[in-house]
Amino acid sequence: MPVVLMVVEFLNSGKRDNMIIIKLTSGLGNQLFQYAAARRLAHIHNTELLLDIDSFGQNKLRSYQLKHFNIREKFASPSDVFKLYPAEGLNRMMIRRVLGTRISYKFNNLLEKKHRNNYFTYSNSGHVPPLINGKLLVQRYFHFDNEVLSAPDNLYLMGYFQSEKFFCDIEGIIRKDFVLKNEVSGRNKEYLLAVQATQSVSLHVRRGDYVNDPETKKLFNICNAGYYNKAIQMMYEFTGKPHFFVFSDDLLWVKENLEIKFPVTFVDCNTDNAIEDMRLMWSCKHNIIANSSFSWWAAWLNNNADKKVIAPSRWINQKNYNMNDIVPESWIRI
Predict the structure, then answer these.
(1) What pLDDT, on a 0 to 100 scale, did the predictor assign at position 312?
(2) Cβ neighbours of 19 (radius 10 Å)
(3) Tally of domains in the chain
(4) 48, 52, 69, 221 - which has most CB atoms within 10 Å?
(5) Bridge-partner residues for 220, per DSSP?
(6) What distance in Å separates the CA atoms of residue 93 and residue 42, rounded to the nearest whole number?
(7) Residue 187 in 3-state DSSP?
(8) Distance CA 163, CA 37 (A)
(9) Rg for the chain, CA atoms, rounded
(10) In the structure, how many helices (H) and strands (E) does the chain have?
């Protein structure tokens, strides 16, 4: 198709007026944070929420996970993206068609690099990038930014938004949206019955990329045995008769390094099914989390009014990043 005709087709293809588009990236926990912040903004403006899942086309390690939840699931088209983020919209409709997917994603990476640099280096710079540039809202800080709450309608959002403060005023809506569509079955149903019948405590140990990937290891703190053993003892003091349910990508390390002198169940049936691990974790009465958005959400979605949640006091290694808002005030930091 000639380029001129593609442009005409592109500009005429969108029919929506105002909307909030959220760029979804990374794993399940981050997708939940991104959706929740955008859902809140769309709710206060009574406008349409659209999900941009294009990033998963180039990320072979991550996939779109929100399809398992009872969310408002409408996807942004390239023409929708164009209205709010023209450079990326044109990239998808023209560069991708003419030069192919590989070149298109390289162009996307160049666009993203500019915004990621603002986000990740803000605390090293005297210049704070603007929150909103045209119709593009780019998160400026790791910590909570109150200006996001009063952002206008008709925006494309980029960021991680890792704090309940971005959506706590619509907590009921978020909890309703984050109900799983499918019922629990098989071995997970057996685990769930055990969780419900005991003073269950989920214990999440994340190692994997935190240990094996140099860049990830540089950024994120690795919760050590000392942290978990102290948390285990505290849960004993809180509950009297704890039963620990362990979730980890390295169960061998857990068995060799943690001192669990109480009833314990190692959940090992969901290697390729993070959704079911999260369901079991939020069904536990109490939670010990890692510095992971995955176990953060499992603890947050735990509906036990008397729950105790223990979280690490240090989330990442870089001291110049302010992560104070990621852990809710009612949780215990050690």
Answers:
(1) 96
(2) 21
(3) 2
(4) 52
(5) 316
(6) 26
(7) helix
(8) 9
(9) 21
(10) 14, 11
* Residue-wise pLDDT tens digits, 80-124: 999 998 877 777 666 666 666 666 656 566 666 555 544 444 444
Q: What is the pLDDT of residue 123?
A: 41
Do 78 and 84 contact (CB within 8 A), yes or no?
Answer: no
What's the confidence (pLDDT) of residue 193? 98
Are 222 and 162 in the same domain?
Answer: no
Query: 52 with 107, same domain?
Result: yes
- The amino acid at 42: A
Residue 158 · residue 137 · CB < 8 Å: yes
Same domain as 153, residue 11:
yes
The pLDDT value recorded for residue 125 is: 44
Question: Domain with 259 in it: what CATH number?
Answer: 3.40.50
Question: CB–CB of 235/308 below 8 Å?
Answer: yes
Domain boundary among 127, 147, 176: 176
Q: CA 52 to CA 66: how far, in whole Å?
A: 12
Which domain range does residue 79 map to? 3-176
Which of 176, 202, 231 finishes a domain? 176
Nearest by Cα to 202 from 300, 127, 109: 300
Same domain? 139 vs 201: no
pTM of model > 0.70 = yes
Q: How far is CA 56 from CA 37, 64, 80, in A?
A: 20, 7, 18
In order of 8, 20, 228, 270, the CA distances from 267 in angstroms are 54, 38, 17, 8
Tell me the residue length of the chain. 334
| In a shared domain, residues 90 and 121 | yes
**Mean pLDDT, contiguous 10-residue spans, the chain (334 residues):** 49 70 96 98 98 86 94 95 83 66 62 53 50 84 91 94 97 98 95 98 86 63 91 97 96 95 94 92 98 96 98 83 90 97
Q: Are residues 131 and 270 in the same domain?
A: no
Pairing of strands 132-133, 136-138: antiparallel
Structure tokens given for 25: 């990236």
